[in-house]
Design goal:
Layout (H helix, E strand, L loop, with lengths): L1 H24 L8 H4 L7 H12 L2 H14 L6 H23 L6 H6 L2 H34 L3 H47 L4 H10 L18 H16 L3 H8 L4 H32 L14
Length: about 300
């Protein structure tokens, strides 16, 4: 069984990397154009939408959100209303002026609007934020690989980082879009498989009853208390700030929007992320409830990182 797991895992990793490199090399020009710097204008809208969605709903959230539901309940579902409020604001207020300027760097706007000092400071903050996020983004899949195949964590981190660096180096930014889009589909497929397999063992009533008894079905906590983990107001309004910071004022996502040939396609990409993020979050919540139903108190867990 272990050899089969290794073969499947290795095959998936090689396939996703090869697809990214192939797509990156396809229609590659020896003389980069403005569109090439912005990932390439021939990328499909749906692929970019999946890529944007997977940028911040990848291994980090795949481990984090079900774990959060397992330990603290379903209050995080209040992110969903803000998706349908914030993403249209991003699409119709934040995106048009940036897109019309055809900027390679989002922070170039700050220099044009204010001064070079503003651009420099924002760029430094972005670099620090990206370095910190990348550390977590590497840790999440490396942790899963380490626990699954019983290899040292630092080796798993090196393998994960090396593979990502190789396909981005060979395939360019376009490889990153197609690979992350495929990874998003794989994540959805794995979540769907977990849910289907669980429903073959337990009924929805059994799952929700167990979670209700365990105090995990929490939806209406409106306390204004900064000392509690989750309540409506921090999730609702904090969710809006999070969405704006990730999908409106982030170079990684804005560069993907700019890769599309028209403003309408870019806006469609943003708007598609509302139902996409909603669907993924609901699946994460359901998986968290299933985990609690299966392992209400798992004695083998040595840390919260191992809940998934």
């Amino acid at each position: 069984m272990w050899s089969t797991d290794v073969a499947v895992f290795g095959g998936v990793m090689l396939f996703t990397s090869a697809l990214g490199i192939w797509k990156g090399k396809l229609n590659h020009s020896s003389k980069p154009t403005h569109g090439e710097l912005l990932v390439g204008s021939n990328v499909s809208t749906f692929s970019v939408a999946l890529s944007v969605c997977s940028s911040f709903l990848s291994a980090v959230s795949l481990l984090g959100f079900p774990s959060e539901v397992y330990f603290r309940g379903t209050m995080i579902i209040w992110f969903i209303p803000m998706y349908f409020i914030s993403f249209p604001i991003v699409a119709y207020i934040f995106l048009p002026p940036i897109y019309e300027l055809k900027l390679t760097s989002l922070y170039e706007y700050l220099e044009r609007r204010f001064t070079f000092a503003n651009r420099f400071i924002a760029s430094i903050i972005f670099l620090i934020q990206t370095l910190l996020y990348t550390a977590v983004a590497l840790y999440a899949p490396a942790l899963a690989i380490s626990n699954s195949f019983s290899i040292p964590l630092f080796i798993s981190i090196i393998l994960t980082a090396s593979l990502s660096a190789i396909y981005l180096l060979l395939g360019g930014a376009r490889a990153g879009i197609y690979t992350s889009a495929l990874q998003m589909l794989l994540i959805l497929g794995s979540l769907f498989a977990i849910i289907c397999a669980s429903l073959m063992t337990w009924t929805p009533y059994e799952i929700f009853e167990k979670n209700f008894e365990g105090g995990r079905l929490i939806f209406f906590d409106f306390r204004i208390d900064p000392t509690i983990r989750h309540s409506f107001f921090p999730l609702f309004f904090g969710g809006a700030v999070t969405i704006f910071s990730l999908f409106a004022a982030n170079q990684l996502t804005m560069q993907r929007y700019m890769s599309l040939s028209t403003i309408k396609k870019a806006q469609t990409t943003v708007l598609l992320n509302a139902p996409m993020n909603t669907f993924v979050l609901l699946m994460y919540v359901l998986v968290g409830l299933i985990i609690f139903n299966a392992f209400e108190c798992h004695p083998a867990l040595k840390s919260k990182d191992q809940v998934n």
